Amino acid sequence: MQRDSAAEYFFSLTDDALSVIRKDPLREVVKPYAYRIENEEDVRLDAKLDEIINRRKTDSAPVPEKRENKGKNRPGFLHLNDLLQDCHACDFWLNRTDRIEAGTGAIRPLFVFVLDRVLEDGSFMSAQEKVFFGKWLAALRLDVRKECYFTSVIKCPGSGGYIPQECENILISQLESLHPAVVMMLGSAGALVAAGTGDIFKARESVYEYHGFRTVCSFSPAQVLEDYQALRRPIWEDLKKAARIAGTDGRLH
């Protein structure tokens, strides 16, 4: 069986190249060859390839089942601040500025730290409190930028001595979006919404399920700084408890 092939064309080009190299453009020295593929094995191989190609064209590949997006009703991370900016449930939104955010930190945190309230400059801790609390997080071997998120129960400055319901609704939406391994309420407001009591000494005795998230209550950095000798050990024990829940306590060894 004889048939033309790409190989025949290739060898013909080779003849032309040899002719140029030997300065024999008329091919007077280099004898041209008529290349034919007569290898029966090669023909069978080509037929097998054609069969595979045709089968792939006709066979319908199974369509993978679309996975249900369990988080489809959760607000996106970038939408969290919109929840706050769109809130006008009480008059305290008048104290809100562009610097005030619903929270700040990692997109998928292990720890969510919930302070009582946001400060007027938009932060959740004073500079001194950040230094103090940062040392505790370093002792826990946590990557603050990748593993921690900070927010507050009360979202606007100057909201008085009560917790607006919409503030807690936004907090719940934050947790549903962030889905942390553990939530740590730092202060009386967090203890009140999670444990039903503003008495932190009582609230810290248990671990709570706050809207489906394991939650530990403890003192805020401001409270610890006010009575450091009495409260430094309790907050450290609470931080270690949260680390055990998050599965990061092995870093302490």
Entry summary:
The protein contains ten helices and six strands, in the order H-H-H-E-E-H-H-E-H-E-H-H-E-E-H-H. With 253 residues, it is an alpha/beta fold.
Q: Give a quick account of the main beta sheet: strands, pairing sense, barrel closure.
A: 6 strands, mixed
Structural class based on helices, strands and sheet pairing: alpha/beta
- What's the number of helices? 10
Kindly state the number of beta strands: 6
Helix content: 40-55%
Q: Please state the overall shape, judged from the principal axes of the Cα atoms.
A: extended
Spatially, the strands of the biggest sheet line up as 1-3-2-4-6-5
Write up this protein.
It is a single chain. By secondary structure, the protein is α/β, with parallel strands linked by helices. It has 2 domains: 6-58, no CATH class; 77-252, Uracil-DNA Glycosylase, subunit E. The protein is 43% helix and 13% strand. It contains 10 helices and 6 strands, in the order H-H-H-E-E-H-H-E-H-E-H-H-E-E-H-H. It has a 6-stranded mixed sheet with strand order 1-3-2-4-6-5, with helices on both faces. A hairpin with a 2-residue loop joins strand 5 (207-210) and strand 6 (213-218). The longest helix has 19 residues, at 40-58. The radius of gyration is 35 Å and the shape is extended. The N and C termini lie far apart (77 Å).
